[in-house]
Amino acid sequence: MREIGIIRRLGNTEEPEIIAAELSAWFRERGIKVVIDQVKPGLDLLIILGGDGTLLHVAGEASRYGIPVVGINLGDLGFLTEVSKDERYEALEAILHNRFAIEHRLLLKTRLISGGRPSDWRMALNDVVISKGNIDRLIQLDSWANDNYITTYRADGLIFSTPTGATAYNLSAGGPIVHPALQSILITPICPFMLDSRPLLVAPETILTARLKDGRRQDVKVLVDGQSAWDIHQDDTIEIQASEYYLKLIASSKKDYFEILRNKLNWGSSIKNGKNPSR
After folding, report:
1. Rounded Cα distance, 25 and 34, in Å
2. In this structure, are residues 87 and 77 in contact, taking their beta carbons and an 8 Å threshold?
3. What is the mean pLDDT of the chain?
4. Which one, of 42, 48, 216, 225, lies nearest residue 140 by Cα?
5. Residue 52 catalytic?
6. Domain that holds residue 171
7. Tell me: the pLDDT tens digits for 117-152?
8. Cα 188 from Cα 127, distance rounded (Å)
9. Within this chain, do residues 231 and 121 fall inside the same structural domain, yes or no?
10. pTM above the 0.70 mark?
């Protein structure tokens, strides 16, 4: 390992700066170069100091360059930033000695097609959301999977999610939890008019499109991983598909996916150590 990057969470606390300085000195003692708050080709590792939101901010660039990412959580346990700050040196020692596993997380790419002109692609690790914004009435969205018509959703919006994002907005809207190793795209309506408008899982090869049907509706927006990307108007089309890039996420050796689920979702447990007695 020759050069690594450290991304610090922005905020009012000095903790990310202090830990970044400590880690920089630790790596340099081992002959490894360090860059701060940069994502560039050739990095051997990217360390995120913060929470899941900090990681989401750099996921697209890291995946394009094929840089493995490890998240050190400075707050509550995250779904993506799994390593606690107290475990940071132990986890980094393991990484330096190649004792780690990499999960390849699916990303989405999306673009707006307006007046026949496509925008640049945007990347999403969690989700792409079409939201009605501040308007009072439902919006209508025609939707297709490849060339096959799905339905016209009448709802407050529509979520297109990765398995990684299944525990984010998708879950709040009543969508299913999907294990991140399962390659798929989720479609979940937000507060649909009809109760039979249910979430849908499609294969990752599917090209999804959604078109705003009712042009009287104003303030309809497209959000990519929570960030406003475009305003959408009548007959504008949003295209969503799996990206050709994957996020290389280094998983914690201390916590498995279901332990994180139990912690974040407050699931009760009657088994003290969680061990399978048949193994």
Report:
1. 9
2. no
3. 90
4. 216
5. yes
6. 107-244
7. 999 999 999 999 999 877 778 889 999 999 999 999
8. 11
9. yes
10. yes
The 10 Å CB-count burial string (b at 16+, else e) for 236-249 is bbbbbbbbebbbbb
Q: Are residues 63 and 44 in the same domain?
A: yes
User: In this predicted model, what pLDDT tens digit does every residue of 167-207 receive, in sequence order?
Assistant: 999 999 999 999 999 999 999 999 998 777 899 999 999 99
Of 156, 22, 170, 175, the closest CA to residue 85 belongs to 22
What is the secondary structure of 45-56 as a DSSP string? EEEEEE-HHHHH
Q: Which two tokens stand for residue 208?
A: 């999804």
Please list, residue by residue across 99-138, b when 16 or more beta carbons sit within 10 angstroms of its beta carbon and e when fewer do: ebeeeebbbbbbbbebeeeeeeebbbbbbbbbbbeeeeeb
| DSSP H or E stretch at residue 268 | none
Separation of alpha carbons 155 and 194, rounded Å: 8
Count: domains in the chain: 2
Residue 45 within any structural domain of the chain: yes
The predicted pLDDT at position 18 comes to 94
pLDDT at site 228: 94
DSSP 141: E
d(CA 192, CA 250): 37
The one catalytic residue in 52, 127, 156, 225 is 52
Two tokens, residue 263: 């912690």
Q: Angle at CA 129, nearest 5°, toward 259 and 65? A: 70
How far is the C-alpha of 200 from the C-alpha of 185, rounded, in Å? 8
For residue 76, count other CB atoms closer than 10 A to its CB: 11
Which CATH number is 13's domain given? 3.40.50.10330
